[in-house]
Amino acid sequence: MCGIAGVFVPKTADPVRPNLDAMAGIMRHRGPDGEGRYSSADNRFHGVFRRLAIIDLKTGDQPIIEANGSSVLFGNGEIYNYIELRQTLKDYPFKTEGDMEAVLPLKRRDPDGYVHALNGMYALAIYDVDDHSLELVRDRMGVKPVYWARTRQDGIVYGSEIKPLLASGLVDAEVDSGAANAYLAHGYVPSPKTLLKGINKLPAGHRLKIDAKGHIEITRYWRPTPERDLPEDNQGIQVHLDELISDSVRMQLRSDVPIGVLLSGGLDSGMVVAHAAAMTSHKLNTFTARFEGGGRDESPMAAEVASRFGTEHRTLTIGANDAAALLPQLAWYAEEPLADAALLPNFLIERALGDHVTVALNGTGGDEIFAGYGRYFQLPIEQQYLKVPAAIRRGLIEPMAETFAPMRAWQLSRAELFNADRGRYLHAHSTQFPGPIRDMIGNRMTPPHGVQTEIFANIRGGFADDQSAALATDMDTYLVDDLLLLLDRTSMAVSIEGRVPMLDHRLVEAALAVPPEIRTPSGRQKGLQRAMAAKLLPESVVSAPKHGFVSPVPSWMAGHLGELARDALTRPQALERGWWTQDGIDRLLADRPRHGYRLYALLALELAIITLTEGPLATSAPHTNLETFLHDR
Q1: Among residues 165, 202, 195, which one has the least CA distance to residue 26?
Q2: So what's the pLDDT on residue 293?
Q3: Of 13, 17, 44, which is closest to residue 131 (Cα–Cα)?
Q4: How far is CA 47 from the centre of its chain?
Q5: Which residues contact 509 (CB under 8 A, 6 or more apart)?
Q6: Nearest Cα residue to 378 out of 520, 476, 268
Q7: What is the DSSP annotation of 389-450?
Q8: 582-590 and 592-613 helices, crossing angle to 10°
């Protein structure tokens, strides 16, 4: 796990000398254990690397130069199946004992197909010295990020984060109002855009190639699709999925530094612990977080799981009350705005983990592969509403509701989308700023179509049912652009590597092939997973209802943070954009229990804009509280 960044310009352009010191230094949190650089003889390619040493502590430095000197590799993340790959490459003169080097002989042997041999989370930058070309590759699920932008010399600048691109001095920071509009619609900026004009995310499962003339080609090499050879019977499916989880955990336990599992008390992390404990010769380190003053406490169930498997278990008690003290720091680390208020609690968890381990496995992805979200099922009230004749619904009920209760009218209108347009249904059940709320805050932008709508329509033909296609749609949107971005930023902020065994691509493909009647029998969330977990976990965990991670945002907003949000959102610079009005912000603040999460979402957007575009870019995370941060601007 590391940070990579670099600059490439074509042969037709003048050489460049970017600020490599600034590009590397601004990523130090991603890799405190070392630094590496490479510049081509003609100064038309430069790469930098910051290392977080996980595997091969002695010889695993980067960049890695191919034996004949023709290719140079920078890699962020892990190739989990590196041991198996190296066994197929015994004639290659390896310089390291690590996981990344196998990429070079694999690419030499199969320049286009080598990516299909890799199992891992990775962002790769491979410079071909002879051809003067560069390839960027992002892992299948998008666990590791890649950002890139065109330079004025028709080249590109790239990095693991946005900050090194800005630090290069080759691109400017200008807010993209269309991306901000998309953020309001989704709670994140959907790939391939970012909040800044001209700075792009390389989407999950994609590769970018730029040649000596500066021509760019972006192609998709993998997408979530169902496995073709899934067993047909329920028991066979359970065995197959369990074997895949086990093998994923086996490979993701590979580490030369202390490793543990973040145990939430739920099914996903519980199953990871069950498999991991069976494979370790020593006591497995497990960790559970509980929040002072928080609501639901899962630590007792986590302790049950830990006791069953004899782990070295710690419950980390975390005070999460002082959000105002940490939000400026988090805005710097996150860069992209996230409406997901789990950002702060997850940062605090990762920071506490750092006192004990360098690698932490977790259960991210379990909801997407086993159907754990409520939006995969039609609400009972919607089912009842659809029994009313359509003419009465559309001609009487909804027009009246539109007049007296616009939000209720919008909620009623979502009901028929479940069968008519499942992609729009997914979006409608996840957006925080539908039309009535935009009207309330004074936003006059035309709401964009939810990306889920287009993606679902494009992939539906490759699936046997709507539910499976909905899972794949969430993988391409919410999972990669919200959950995995959050994981990368909160873990890398404190130099911890977060691993996600539930997102092994083989497991994803198998899970997507499961028919809904087996995956969620009788419409029960995670029904299949519960049956699998019953053989491993305590009954209290298996039968517990699904609970999402809840941050105490309304209580934050009821206190001082609410007033600071008012200050941030009613600054002249904020109001001049026309995305909301002072009256609109006052309306949200007047009902903080209802609109607390919306206020947080707007505050996250404003802090991202301030951090990236107002004044010089900070070279390290600010440690001032929000009040001082705003005052200094």
Answers
A1: 165
A2: 61
A3: 44
A4: 25
A5: 224, 225, 226, 227
A6: 520
A7: -HHHIIIIIHHHHHHH-HHHHHHHHTTTHHHH-HHHHHHHTT-S--HHHHHHHT--SPPPPP
A8: 140
Structure tokens at 362: 């977790």
Q: Is the pTM of this model over 0.90?
A: yes
Which are the contacts of 222, defined by CB distance < 8 A and separation ≥ 6? 115, 116, 140, 205, 505
Whether 320 has a pLDDT exceeding 60, the answer reads no
Residue 478 is classified by DSSP as: I
Question: Which residues share a beta bridge with 219?
Answer: 207
Residue 143 CA: distances (Å) to CA of 78, 551, 604: 10, 23, 22
Chain mean position to CA 32: 22
Axis crossing angle, helix 466-474 with helix 451-459, rounded to the nearest 10 = 130
The three-state secondary structure class of 126 is strand
List, in order, residues 6 or more apart from 616 with CB less than 8 Å away. Answer: none
Element (H, E) at 497: strand 497-499
H helix or E strand, kind and range, residue 4: strand 2-8
> Alpha carbon of 335 to those of 47, 149, 220, 485: distances in Å?
22, 16, 25, 10
C-alpha span between 336 and 332 (Å, rounded): 9
Q: Tell me, what's the pLDDT at 67? A: 84
**What is the secondary structure of 69-113 as a DSSP string?**
SSEEEEEEEEETTHHHHHHT-TTS--S-SSSSTTHHHHHHH-TTT
Greatest alpha-carbon pair distance for the chain in Å reads 76
How far is residue 356's CA from residue 352's CA, in Å, rounded to a whole number? 8
pLDDT tens profile 223-239? 999 999 999 999 999 99
Per-residue tokens: 557: 């907003």
Closest CA to 625 of 552, 559, 560, 558: 560
What are φ and ψ of residue 4, in 5° steps? Answer: -125, 155
Whether the bond into 545 is cis, omega within 30 of 0: no
